[in-house]
Amino acid sequence: MPAAGPNSHFIDLKDLPADVLMHILETAKAWKQARIGLPKGAVDAGAPLAGHALAMIFEKSSTRTRMSFEMAMQQLGGSSLVMQGGTMQLGRGESIEDTARVISRYVDAVMVRANSHETLEALATHGSIPVINALTDRSHPCQLMADMLTLMEHFGRLEGLKVAWVGDGNNVATSFIEAATRFGFSLELACPDAYLPSAGALQWANAEGGNCNVTGDPAAAVADADVVVADAWVSMGDEDVDERMSALAPYQVNEDLMAKAKATAVFMHCLPAHRGEEVTAGVIDGPQSLVWQEAENRLHAQKAVLAWCLGKI
Ligand code: CP
Ligand code: NVA
């Protein structure tokens, strides 16, 4: 396994080998079990990140990511501080290079939710501490670690599962393509022509022996699926709202579509959700939905990501 060190970034799943990703997930699962019954603010046994500080930079809105990273550092025995991108000198023209150098002098790791993936890469290049991708326009790998933990808990395995992505071929879809390839499940993506998944991600998956296919037909994608996944039709930063609403209307995950998947199929969504748009209330609030467990697992998965980035696991 490649050595984790004080400068191990978590930028995209494709950057890390499957054994490292699986090691992070197994740690997350064990640590989640180990703290059952503890109050949410209690520090884990051994305080794995005692004395360590995380900076969190947000250029976009967040509920889950902000709260789960902050509580992750609390439970690991470390500390965290939040910076809103708009209030930083970055917003007044200070370069990303200088910002990266300065941040590296104050904290041990930095988590970034950036408008542009290039910002994140520049921080990693010019700083000297681990950089964690907390969503960019390209990808959302921390979400996928939580999703994988949830599927491991539910099915007891990832390999061989059949997953259907229905809707916009967006940043979360890109991370799903990378996860499918690293963890060995098949992925059928049903997307309209105007909002196809990243061609580069699909090419990469193909070259790595992944099993990801794109169709325009939601019914074909969900046939025999173990997992059906949806996300918002309009992501943060998207401006073509009307075009999206009409192109994506046939891609709603509703009770009829879920009935075409396996009877044992589960529904996932990274949240926030828009009932009546990408998913009906009957599905997201129904018995097949894993969304609350999925949201909780952001916390558990990220604790292990943080510990790996800082060389503790
Ligand atoms: N799923 C997710 O990243 O949620 P937030 O935007 O609330 O952080
Ligand atoms: N695709 C969504 C995910 C939000 C967590 C967005 O980028 O806005």
Strand content: 5-15%
Oligomer: single chain
Q: What is the approximate shape? A: globular
Helix-residue proportion: 40-55%
N-to-C series of helices and strands: HEHEHEHEHEHEHEHEHHEHH
Structural class: alpha/beta
Overall number of domains: 2
CATH architecture of the largest domain: 3-Layer(aba) Sandwich
Q: Give the strand order, joined by hyphens, for the main sheet.
A: 7-6-5-8-9
Instruction: Write the CATH fold name of the largest domain.
Output: Rossmann fold
Summary keywords:
313 residues, alpha/beta, Rossmann fold, 2 domains, four-stranded parallel beta sheet, 12 helices, globular, binds phosphoric acid mono(formamide)ester, binds norvaline
Write the layout of secondary structure elements.
Layout lengths: L17 H17 L18 E6 L5 H12 L3 E6 L11 H11 L2 E5 L3 H10 L4 E3 L7 H15 L6 E5 L4 H13 L2 E5 L8 H9 L4 E4 L2 H5 L4 E4 L10 H8 L6 H4 L7 E4 L11 H4 L6 H19 L4
Parallel strand pairs: 1-2, 1-3, 3-4, 5-6, 5-8, 6-7, 8-9
Helix pairs in contact: 1-5, 1-12, 2-12, 3-4, 5-6, 5-12, 6-7
The chain binds phosphoric acid mono(formamide)ester and norvaline (NVA).
Phosphoric acid mono(formamide)ester (CP) binds next to helix 2.
